[in-house]
Write a structure and sequence with these properties.
Blueprint (H helix, E strand, L loop, with lengths): L1 H12 L36 E7 L3 H17 L3 E7 L4 H14 L5 E4 L1 H8 L8 H4 L8 H6 L2 H5 L13 E2 L3 E8 H6 L8 H14 L6 E3 L2 H12 L4 E3 L6 E3 L4 H15 L3 E3 L9 H4 L7 E5 L12 H5 L4 E4 L11 E4 L2 E4 L5 H14 L2 H11 L12 H8 L8 H18 L4 E2 L7 H17 L5 H20 L1
Helix pairs in contact: 10-11, 10-18, 11-18, 15-16, 18-19
């Protein structure tokens, strides 16, 4: 699978076909930023003292780990000094600070970033395109090394234009997962569902037995809309083939079919979302041990499946299972990826960019990827990270038959992370451009409006959906 996905990536991006210092082509005008022309014989000048800055918003534990890495890195490269800074307390504030620093020329060399933030920086042509760094024979990656990255996570770095410009590298990634009351499933001989139809067949059976139950919950309407679009093959956002620019595309009949599918389940009392639950996480209902038995939530919040549960519920035998996100059908198994990446910025000094690139590579090496993810619950981004001593030693601590909530939580985190290892090709990301963040927010709000609407007839529902889709589309694009 790794080799197949690598071939697909190379066909799409031409990463290793990109020439260094070659003649410009018409594709350049479709690129979000210009590809830096790194020479093939580029290498670090070890005689020159270089200082680079890394901005992030990490908590104390993760920051301490990065500081340890910096000490190790500086021993390998004594002429490079890395200054890390917790520049903000959250991603939005970090993006704002970086955006303000770009015109002043005080922006960092490396930053934690979400795709929408990088698209924002690209309006000033500030991010460094990494294609010629990746393909460089001296300091880049081999084809096997690119294939070592989980393909869906790697592909997110080239979601910024139609020409395969790579502006970010996967760093600490999460997704969504299907969590379920395993004890209840075992009691009633339910198989873990792989499709939405199977989810709602189980929900209907539960409803017959418990009429006041709402068997299934979904915590993010934004993700439900985007992932549903992908699974239904309904255009959401994409790139115009002629201009290479991003477009808002969700206003289509297939998308409306998708949203009506889930609205039917809400109307029948089979499903609840976070907004329909008073903006409270549906996982909080599930872990009471009754009335809701399945939910979709972030793998980054896996520990919350047990956090806050009463000891009494746990002692009564409540256990949680986790599985990949259900799909429309087996041919369209897709789920959204989340979590920050890292990106680099263009600088006037090539040696400074090379030093930043080497540190970025160090942070996402197999050993460091595993080391960071074990305490955080994020997924290692490389296949070989799951073969490291750090990961294998972590697995040795997991108890298959946990007797405490901490043991049960650790086992569930391990199982959630392994969804990435075992399903590397199902993760996707949407096109990223200046309207993508706004589209995500408004699409989620559109989903909530339609799920909550109480129509008087089928015709009334169709008219309402058509009207709200058009109003939302107009609001985003005008």
């Amino acid at each position: 699978m790794k080799k197949v996905m690598l071939v697909l990536l190379l066909l799409v991006t031409g990463v290793f076909l990109a020439s260094c210092g070659g003649e410009r082509t018409s594709t350049d005008e479709k690129r979000l930023v210009e590809w830096y022309e790194l020479s093939e014989d580029a290498k670090l000048d070890t005689s020159k003292e270089i200082t680079i800055k890394f901005w992030h918003r990490m908590g104390a534990d993760s920051q301490a780990l990065v500081q340890k890495w910096i000490g190790e890195f500086e021993q390998i490269y004594p002429n490079i000094t890395v200054i890390e800074e917790k520049a903000a307390g959250d991603y939005t504030a970090l993006a704002d600070k970086i955006a303000l620093s770009i015109p002043a020329g005080t922006n960092p060399d490396i930053a934690e970033s979400y795709p929408d933030h990088i698209a924002r920086y690209a309006q000033a042509k500030a991010p460094l395109a990494l294609n010629n760094f990746i393909s460089n024979p001296n300091i880049g990656y081999t084809e096997d090394e690119v294939a070592d990255f989980l393909p869906g996570l790697w592909a997110e770095g080239q979601s910024y234009d139609s020409e395969g410009t790579i502006l970010s590298l996967p760093f600490t990634k999460s997704s969504e997962a299907f969590f379920y009351n395993k004890t209840y499933f075992d009691l009633h001989d339910y198989e873990v569902p792989t499709t939405w139809d199977e989810v709602f067949e189980i929900a209907e059976d539960i409803k017959l037995r418990e009429p006041d139950a709402i068997p299934f919950g979904y915590d993010s309407e934004d993700n439900l809309f985007i992932t549903g679009s992908e699974q239904w093959q309904a255009p959401y956002t994409g790139y115009n083939a002629e201009t290479g620019k991003g477009e808002v595309q969700f206003n289509n009949d297939t998308s409306k079919e998708m949203i009506k599918y889930f609205k039917d389940k809400v109307d029948r009392g089979l499903m609840l979302t976070r907004a329909l639950n008073g903006d409270a996480y549906t996982s909080d209902i599930v872990k009471t041990g009754k009335k809701m038995y399945m939910y979709v939530g972030s793998t980054g919040g896996t520990r919350y499946a047990y956090t806050g549960m009463t000891q009494e519920v746990f002692d009564e035998g409540y256990r949680v299972g986790v599985a990949p996100l259900p799909a429309k059908d087996e041919a369209h198994r897709k789920q959204i990826q989340q979590g920050p990446n890292i990106n680099l910025f263009k600088k006037n000094d090539e040696q400074q960019m090379i030093a930043a690139w080497l540190f970025a590579k160090y942070m996402i090496s197999p050993e460091k990827s595993a080391e960071f993810c074990i305490p955080s619950g994020y997924a290692p981004v490389r296949y070989s990270a799951y073969e490291t001593d750090a990961w294998q030693n972590y697995l040795a601590t997991i108890k298959e038959n946990p007797t405490t909530m901490n043991e049960a939580s650790s086992k569930l985190v391990k199982e959630a992370i392994e969804i990435f290892l075992n399903n590397g090709d199902i993760f996707f990301t949407s096109a990223v451009f200046n309207l993508s963040s706004k589209t995500r927010t408004e699409a989620g709000a559109l989903m909530v409006k339609i799920l909550a609407y109480q129509p008087t007839s089928d015709a009334d529902l169709d008219a309402y959906i058509n009207s709200e889709y058009q109003k939302t589309y107009d609001f985003i694009t005008n």
